[in-house]
């Protein structure tokens, strides 16, 4: 009874149905518990052995009527619970086909990426908006409108993760090679609030860092946000070359202090890399044409995953002149530490 008080209020329509079902089950279980325990205690006290009770009372076996009743009542309760559960389950799993907003959630060790799409599920049109952890120091924010059906696609880039928003009373796994989906609608009265989300599947050393925030907006605010965000992201990375001596630090825990490095085109530059992460943790800075997970090739920086600097430590990478373009850097040991390498 105490633990049930920990269940948060659901802010989604299906979450509310789950919550109601839960309450119904709890009340039914409480009634059965009180009735059964009450009868046991009453009978134990009322018919206890007293002084002078030396003879066994009359014994009898079998009573068809009572047996039918005590089989029938639980069967009816179970049947009712089964039907109610199936109705709620069908509702939680219902997906609408009226081309809702689609958010593709990608989980990877150990962060989240949220990409926005419109259009029918088999012809998704990107909105040009991707949300990731901000500068690797703040968990990403999943921005969603209230009062609208939202379709979610759940993808894992490596191991099993689980998308969990307690206030939705909902959790679904991200499994490599499997395409999990669900739809949800947040009730309109929960606009302009923030909720906590997290990975709910132990997925490795930094599972605990796989958190995110859910920020709710009215549909008008959301449309404005997505337009502004798409415009901003279309402009590309917002850092510009400031000379030929670049600087980047690794900081606790498992993060870079920046996600944007910039160098002037066709000039050799140096990258001073200081590993200020917790002692013993290895990192490096490796520059690629693009994310090697998407086919990028090594350009400069660290040689490979064995060429690392263990904290506390420092190194300087020499980078030959590069043609203008937007490249990619990451730590070979922790590819979730990454950023854009701008050359112009
Ligand atoms: Cu991802 Cu735990």
What gyration radius follows from the Cα positions, in whole Å?
29 Å
| Structural shape | elongated
> Helix coverage percent of residues?
10-25%
Query: How are strands sequenced across the largest beta sheet?
Result: 3-2-1-5-8
In terms of quaternary structure, the protein is single chain
Structural class: alpha+beta
Number of helices: 3
Biggest β-sheet description: 5 strands, mixed
List SSEs in N-to-C order.
HHEEEEEEEEEEHEEEEEEEEEEE
Percent of residues in β-strands: 25-35%
Which ligands accompany this protein? dinuclear copper ion
Question: Your description of this structure?
Answer:
The chain is elongated. The chain is built from three helices and 21 strands. α1 (13-46) packs antiparallel against α2 (64-93). The termini are far apart. The longest helix is centred in the N-terminal third of the chain and has 34 residues, at 13-46. The protein has helices spanning 13-46, 64-93, 219-234, and strands at 101-108, 111-118, 125-131, 141-145, 149-156, 161-165, 170-174, 180-185, 194-199, 211-217, 245-251, 255-256, 260-263, 269-275, 282-283, 286-288, 298-301, 309-310, 313-319, 325-330, 338-343. The strands form five sheets. Strands 3-2-1-5-8 form a five-stranded mixed β-sheet. The protein has a five-stranded mixed β-sheet with strand order 4-10-9-6-7. Dinuclear copper ion binds at residues 107, 110, 161, 199, 201-203, 207, 210.
